[in-house]
Design a protein that fits this description.
Chain lengths: 290, 359, 238
């Protein structure tokens, strides 16, 4: 293996890692505010992928432009999910919350299977396989665009949480729900908002990888697992942690694919996951906070 | 004083209950003498298998409160060990299954040593991660497992003790009896657990680990014990499944979906009770089979609600069968939202309400 | 002979000392009161003694045996049992089942454990609740259940962490009588954390006062109430 192959894999790992980070951020916001681990996260992403696919094939909207439609729609989807289902189990056992989200995920993926069959769909754009060449290293065009969009969204979200009143109210709710409520923050509304944001992030991630990934109803579960690894690695509830975690996992996957083998890369990821759980369960960025 | 009520729990079983139990067991043993339909036998076998899987999980998940969402690992270990030994070493399944159980115990102890340091959602995540590692390993160790291609056997060697032929596995009847015995065995084991020190210690850990620890309960021993019991029986279920279906691959015996389905059997019936997984299986098996075998689509068409030739009719016939897992999703959402104690708990509550109303 | 010796026990969390250099001894059959303002390190000391945390420095010696490094379950088996400041009933189990879990530390037989449990339930006068779910009990009865459960482990040394907290005067009086009855029988030594000064003065043979993790004073109740440092610590912190 030459140095350039390694460098190539590092770059594409970083680019994919950016999208992973987006999925992780969504999960971490939901966990941070509600302490609910969302097992339907990958399935929400899957919904975003199909949405993008049909916007492209039926209406001819470019996948990267369709983010503008996908994001608000997925926000509403998540907000509705929180209001109708998750809200009822906020004080239940964590196990029951997990099972509820598992159930919702199964409903989503199997409904998608009913509606769209289990065939793999591929979204081919004019630039799907085009790439920039830089000193012998090729950078996939769709991956690069999605990475840049991810960066913009992450910065925007960070600004929203740090600088706006609503963002601060969300962070206060994440820190101490009861205290936030005493301070007059509408905690219920913040929960709906956070689940909305979380699923908007997942849906957007789905839109961004749609041009480079197979689209099928069961695609979600692999990404749900990845999202867990990313958020646990970064520290449940930490946005910076999830961003770092996403990029690390992207790197680990692509580097272990070339150094070990692509069949075993997921084992490497899960092994890292278990190690983090055992050695530093609070993750890279410490205890849960937004 | 709110929600305070005595439990009218009956210690031991009354004579009527015992009689009732004996009649049911006798009827189950006599069933194949009267019913020859392979489809009916098949359904009963699936019901027993589901009971076996659900009850096995119930011991670690329901009684001990450690929600493993990685039980496919033990199921797959049993299934693969049995099949590999049968196809490569010609070791018959009734010997292979013991080695499968042993292998599952080793997997369980590895899982235990990693996962039991973690609590709550972290335990759930770790159990999933371990099971996924097992699945990917089975997928990639192609020399041993044939990878994604799977392992197929055409003939199961006849079961002989000495020269005496017990069965040649020509029909579904021997499978029926094996599955029935396994299901009865796990119910008996659950009963024994509940009525012994094990049950008290398992439940104490479920209710409050720290309190349990301070009352002299060694958490390492008393979490691994139920896990090993659970893994052994789940592995048996896997071995049985392998020789019953005669084909296994990582997507049928090791996926995350299977782990989830195993959990749901008890959740839907009612966790931490002897009969919960049985009730859960009674609900789930017929429903998912009805979807899988297209009975529902056929019924919708026959009833005249949907025209067979119409787009919807064709669509339902083609696709409803693939979505049988949908029913698991809907059921679990309904159960968690409206009957968090499972069907058993719900029925008990209804009964208590009715009683209260009359009194 | 001392049943329990605490020798220079310190417990650090990060850089913060929750206990520093605490030493005292307990003789068999006595009641030792452990008092101090909030955050003085009383519960931390309990946790160090019963194996929940290893002490950072120092030794805990029970019946001449060094306890450092033993897990809570082993500590319990050796005869040291504790209750929790915030009660921890096994909510979905009945009162008698809760107490049986304690008794099963000494027996493998369900039948024997049930008899042992009923005996302790009678001691704390919870017979009428025996078949109720522990999670549904009011706080006073939960505290009693907690005591019955640790008594069932057949301890030599009982560590009671605010068993009167949150109780009304009548309920507190019942618990005081219970503690005094246990002492009367002479088999069990007790260490009691309590905020109610009147109660602790009444029941204790000796009192140790903790303040900011350090031992401020030790002595008989009458000496403690007149100790100027103790008075300052309490007045200063309120």
């Amino acid at each position: 293996m030459t140095f350039s192959v390694l460098l190539q894999s590092i770059i594409s790992g970083m680019l994919v890692g950016g999208v992973y980070a987006l999925i992780g951020i969504g999960l971490t916001i939901i966990f941070g505010v509600m302490r609910v681990i969302n097992f339907a996260h990958g399935d929400i992403m899957m919904v975003g992928m199909y949405l993008t696919f049909f916007l492209f094939t039926l209406l001819g909207i470019d996948p990267f432009v369709s983010v503008l439609i996908t994001m608000p729609l997925m926000f509403l989807f998540g907000a509705l999910m929180q209001k109708v289902f998750i809200n009822r189990v906020l004080s239940a056992l964590p196990q029951n919350q997990i099972l509820l989200t598992i159930g919702l995920g199964l409903i989503m993926s199997n409904s998608a299977m009913l509606a769209f069959t289990s065939d793999y769909k591929i979204l081919t754009t004019s630039y799907s396989s085009s790439s920039y060449s830089l000193g012998g290293i090729s950078i996939s065009q769709p991956l690069l665009i999605s990475f840049l969009i991810t960066c913009a969204i992450t910065v925007g979200l960070y600004w929203f949480l740090m600088r706006t009143d609503t963002g601060q109210a969300i962070r206060a709710t994440a820190q101490d729900r009861e205290a936030a409520q005493l301070m007059g923050i509408n905690v219920k509304w913040m929960s709906i908002l956070s689940f909305g944001i979380g699923s908007a992030m997942a849906g957007t991630a789905g839109a961004l990888i749609a041009p480079t990934y197979y689209i099928f109803p069961q695609v979600g579960s692999a990404f749900t697992l990845k999202a867990f690894v990313i958020t646990v690695l970064g520290g449940m509830g930490s946005i910076i942690g999830a961003t770092l975690g996403g990029i690390i996992i992207g790197l680990v996957e692509s580097v272990s694919a070339v150094t070990i083998s692509s069949e075993w890369k997921d084992v490497v990821v899960f092994a890292i996951f278990l190690l983090v759980l055992l050695i530093k369960p609070s993750g890279l960025m410490g205890k849960s906070r937004l | 004083m709110k929600s305070i009520h005595p439990l009218t729990s009956i210690r031991g079983a009354s004579a009527v209950q015992i009689m009732f139990g004996i009649v049911i067991i006798a009827a189950l043993f006599a069933f194949p003498q009267f019913v020859e339909s392979p489809y009916a036998l098949h359904m009963m076998i699936l019901f027993f298998l589901s009971t076996l899987m659900g009850s096995s999980w119930n011991i670690i998940g329901g009684y001990t409160g450690q929600y493993s969402v990685g039980h496919a690992a033990y199921f797959g270990t049993g299934a693969y060990t049995t099949m590999i030994l049968l196809t490569t070493k010609e070791i018959p399944p009734w010997q292979g299954m013991w080695i499968g159980m042993f292998a599952a115990v080793i997997v369980a102890l590895i899982v235990g040593s990693i996962c039991f340091r973690l609590r709550g959602p972290y335990f759930v995540l770790a159990s999933i991660a371990v099971a996924e590692i097992v699945r990917i390993t089975a997928l990639n160790l192609t020399d041993l497992t044939k990878g994604a291609e799977g392992i197929l056997v055409t003939d199961i060697p006849p079961f002989k003790i000495g020269e005496l032929l017990i069965t040649d596995f020509a029909s579904k009847v021997p499978y029926y009896y094996i599955a029935l015995v396994l299901a009865l065995a796990i119910i008996l084991v659950t009963w024994l657990v509940q009525h012994s020190k094990l049950g008290y210690y398992f439940q104490a850990i479920r209710e409050d680990q720290d309190a349990a620890h301070s009352l002299g309960i060694n958490l390492t021993i008393w979490k691994n014990t139920p896990l090993v019991i659970s893994a052994v029986f789940t592995s048996l279920a896997g071995s049985f499944y392998a020789i019953f279906i005669k084909f296994i691959d990582p997507t049928t015996v090791l996926p995350l979906d299977l782990s989830v389905q195993i959990v749901l059997i008890s959740i839907i019936g009612g966790i931490g009770t002897i009969w919960g997984p049985v009730v859960g299986s009674l609900v789930l098996v017929p429903l998912s089979e009805a979807l899988r075998s297209n009975v529902i689509a056929q019924w919708l068409i026959n009833s005249g609600m949907v025209d067979a030739e119409s787009g919807t009719g064709v669509f339902l016939k083609e696709h409803l069968a693939h979505a049988h897992v949908l029913i698991y999703g809907i059921l679990v959402v309904v159960v968690i939202l409206f009957m968090p104690e499972g069907v058993m708990g719900y029925v008990k509550k209804l009964a208590a309400k009715k009683k209260g109303g009359e009194a | 002979m001392a049943i329990l010796e605490i020798k220079h026990v310190s417990k650090l969390f990060g850089g913060l000392a929750a206990n520093s250099d605490v030493s005292f001894e307990m003789t068999e059959g006595m009641i030792m009161g452990l008092i101090g303002p909030n955050g003085a390190g009383k519960t931390t000391l309990f946790n160090c003694i019963t194996g929940y945390y290893p002490p950072t420095k120092g030794e805990v010696i029970f019946e001449g045996r060094k306890m450092n490094g033993l897990q809570p379950d082993a500590v319990c088996k050796l005869g040291m049992a504790r209750t929790w400041q915030k009660v921890r009933p096994l909510a979905k189990m009945t009162v008698v089942d809760n107490v049986m879990v304690g008794a099963l530390c000494r027996t493998n037989s369900i039948k024997v454990a049930r008899e042992m449990a009923m005996e302790q339930i009678r001691v704390v006068r919870l017979e009428h609740r025996a078949n109720f779910l522990a999670g549904g009990l009011p706080i006073g009865e939960r505290k009693k259940l907690e005591v019955a459960r640790v008594l069932a482990t057949n301890p030599k040394l009982l560590l009671l962490d605010e068993v009167m907290g949150g109780l009304n005067p009548a309920e507190s009086e019942e618990i005081i009588q219970l503690i005094l009855d246990i002492k009367q029988k002479g088999k069990i030594t007790q260490m009691v954390i309590e905020h109610d000064m009147k109660a602790i003065m009444r029941i204790s043979d000796r009192i140790v006062v903790l303040n900011s993790g350090e031992k401020l004073a030790e002595g008989e109740p009458k000496d403690i109430v007149s100790n100027p440092e103790v008075i300052t610590a309490y007045l200063g912190s309120e």
